[in-house]
Amino acid sequence: MSVFLELGQRPDEPGPPIHGPATYPADVTERLSRDATGIVGRYPDARSALLPLLHLVQAEDGYLTPAGIAFCAEHLSLTPAEVTAVATFYSMYRRTPTGDYLVGVCTNTLCAVMGGDAILDTLQERLGILAGQSTPDGRITLEHVECNAACDYAPVVMVNWEFFDNQTPSSARDLVDALQAGQAPTPSRSESLCTFRETARTLAGVDDSIGTDTAGPGPATLAGLRIARERGMSAPDADAPASDSTSDAPGHDQAEATESVKDQPAPAPSAEVPARGQTADTDPTATDAS
Q1: Residue partners of 275: CB distance under 8 A and separation at least 6
Q2: What is the 3-state secondary structure (H, E, C) of the chain?
Q3: Is the separation of the CB atoms in 196 and 145 below 8 Å?
Q4: I want to staple 157 with a disulfide (CB 3.0 to 4.6 A). Which of 9, 39, 164, 254 is the partner?
Q5: Could you give the CA distance from residue 122 to residue 240 in angstroms, rounded to a whole number?
Q6: Strand ranges across the sheet with 140-145
Q7: Can you give the pLDDT at residue 3?
Q8: Is residue 155 within 8 Å of 115, Cβ to Cβ?
């Protein structure tokens, strides 16, 4: 059976240019400037504060606007083009108005295989919106996201970048139902769930609304370590002196063999290397490796 996985941005999620208000009212500029001064002061080079400043203005508008871009440029002595180049590179910076809860469904390889696409389809139907859109009340914005680096608990749904592990279409539906009802479920790895703007202020370093990680690494994360300990495996001692002789070292012959063929082309399909889609069950010339 063939499985087709489409990766990357979906056709219904165009990346719009940064738009919105061009300037902030004077009182907003003054308030943001106080926060910005504290942020910039933490860095020996002012431009190093660009990422947290982008989170700061995103917390103000719920997404990046020309006003936010201009604010960052002015405080860091950068051009708006330089700020925009950074802002449009990172997916955590939003270019469309974002709801109180940004619900991201991972549809990258492992999560997709484990049911991520089915979860996204279920949430689109439940919320009556497509990925990249917000509910009419502005409470939830749905998006499909690339790998969340949480493959050990696939499929994963994130809400404002908090993990909800081992999801199913049913549990994900319950999750968004609770959010729409004004109930913030507890994430899998922290003690509380904040709104999108509160999360952005925390990432900017001017608030501490996000709860701390209360779960720690779980069994799935530690599976490799457990197996290594059961088999008496360990990493080489980093402080051990290097051996003067490598000719008798374990793996030396393999290293030499690898070096000798590294520039050669990959082998063509054969009895030992079947063509794509061909297995020992279907190839009459394939040999039994056992």
Answers
A1: 269
A2: CCCCCCCCCCCCCCCCCCCCCCCCCHHHHHHHHHHHHHHHCCCCCHHHHHHHHHHHHHHHHCCCCHHHHHHHHHHHCCCHHHHHHHHCCCCCCCCCCCCCEEEEEECCHHHHHCCHHHHHHHHHHHHCCCCCCECCCCCEEEEEECCCCCHHHCCCEEECCEEECCCCHHHHHHHHHHHHCCCCCCCCCECCCCCHHHHHHHHHCCCCCCCCECCCCCCCCCHHHHHHHHCCCCCCCCCCCCCCCCCCCCCHHHHHHHHHHCCCCCCCCCCCCCCCCCCCCCCCCCCCCC
A3: no
A4: 164
A5: 54
A6: 140-145, 101-106, 157-159, 162-164
A7: 63
A8: yes
pTM strictly above 0.85: no
Which sign does the torsion angle of CA 201, 203, 204, 208 carry? positive
- 207-235 pLDDT, tens digit per residue, is 876 656 666 778 888 888 899 999 999 88
The backbone torsions φ and ψ at residue 116, rounded to the nearest 5 degrees and listed phi first, read: -60, -40
Q: Could you state, in order of their start, the residue ranges of all structural domains in the chain? A: 26-87, 101-204
CATH of 101-204, one of 3.30.420.40, 3.10.180.10, 2.40.50.180, 3.40.30.10: 3.40.30.10
Tokens for 50, please give them: 């660009």
26-87 folds as Arc Repressor Mutant, subunit A (1.10.10)
Query: Are the C-beta atoms of residues 75 and 40 closer than 8 Å to each other?
Result: yes
Q: Which residues pair with 159 in a beta bridge?
A: 103, 162
Confidence band of 19 (pLDDT split at 50, 70, 90): confident
Could you give the CA distance from residue 3 to residue 116 in angstroms, rounded to a whole number?
14
- Given a cut of 50, whether residue 197 has pLDDT beyond it is yes
